[in-house]
Amino acid sequence: MKKNTSFRYSYLWLLLAVALVLLVGWQLLKVAPLQLGLEESNRIDLTPEQIKSIRDIGQWEFLAVTDEELVDTTRRGFFSDDHLARIYYGTLRLGVDLSQTDENWISTDVDTVRIVLPPITLLDEHFIDEARTRAFHESGRWSAEDREAMYRRAQQLMKAHALTPQNLRSAQDNADAQVRKLLHAMGFAHVSVEFRE
Predict the structure, then answer these.
(1) Which pairs from 96-99 meet CB under 8 Å and 24+ separation?
(2) Distance separating alpha carbons of residues 128 and 62, to the nearest angstrom
(3) CA nearest neighbour of 74 among 137, 152, 144, 158
(4) Is the sign of the CA dihedral 88, 94, 98, 104 positive or negative?
(5) Which residues have C-beta within 8 Å of that of residue 72, sequence separation ≥ 6?
């Protein structure tokens, strides 16, 4: 019988403790009601995978300049002069190499993304289309070294005509527009594009 009474008292104390907890909880809810709800956030974060996928674009072309140059040379001889004239064709591609970005080249702040790109450069030094190169006039004997020297002159002339401040600015404007378009498509309302010096 004693066993039963102690069980009843234990059961009674347990019910009393549960009632007390419920009463205290109810009082707390009256004083500070529980605020349940969803908070709207405009924050957009770029994941490391997204940043890597942008960097993996690699060389991003923003302007192609097609050029053609006539390069000639004359070698004076005792009895006659040797002449060589060749026409070179090339397409110089201007853009950014995203593998050259700094460590913190892209950052976000709420709905704004700031991106710092490498400077606009010539993406490939081998821009002369050798299959289209033609001898315009040739007399005498010319070595491979002579032809290589003419090739280098043609390269320098094409660079001088393509890498003008106007073309670099045009490529930079195209880069700005295309990068903004990409990041707007990723959900950013505000985009700041800068170029490293």
Answers:
(1) 96/59, 96/60, 96/62, 96/120, 96/121, 96/175, 97/58, 97/59, 97/60, 97/121, 97/123, 98/54, 98/55, 98/56, 98/57, 98/58, 98/59, 98/60, 99/55, 99/58
(2) 19
(3) 137
(4) positive
(5) 83, 84, 85, 86, 136, 137
Q: How far apart are CA 189 and CA 180, in angstroms?
A: 10
Tens of pLDDT along 57-96? 888 899 999 999 998 787 776 666 778 888 999 999 999 9
Paired strand residues for 96: 60
CA distance 90 to 78: 36
- Residue that the structure tokens 């073309």 belong to: 167
Helix-strand-coil split of the chain, %, nearest 5:
40, 30, 30
Residues lower than pLDDT 50 in the chain:
34, 36, 38-41
Which pLDDT score, from 0 to 100, does residue 47 have? 64
* Structure token pair of residue 170: 């045009």
pLDDT averaged over the chain? 80
Predicted pLDDT of residue 92 = 95
120 and 100 Cβ atoms separated by less than 8 Å: no
Buried b / exposed e across 134-158, counting CB within 10 Å, b at 16+? eeeeeeeebeeeeeeebbebbbebb
